[in-house]
Amino acid sequence: MNAKEKALELYNKMYSTTTHPNSVEIRKECAKQCALIAVEEILTRMLGSRAYSFNEKLFWSEVKSELQSF
Fold this sequence. Notes:
The chain is an all-alpha fold. Helices cover 77% and strands 0% of the residues. It has one domain (3-68). It contains three helices and no strands.
């Protein structure tokens, strides 16, 4: 799975669990923000650890960039 596919997967999971009765746009923005929070948590834990490879850190950075473009 590439970064764009992972970003879309996370976004869709967040979108399906986010509810707002009045606005699809609010649901979309909430899903995006929730997915970004999740990725930021992953990156924060990775940056403080040597257990992850450069490629893994790069992948999650790319996922974050893809989400920001939604």
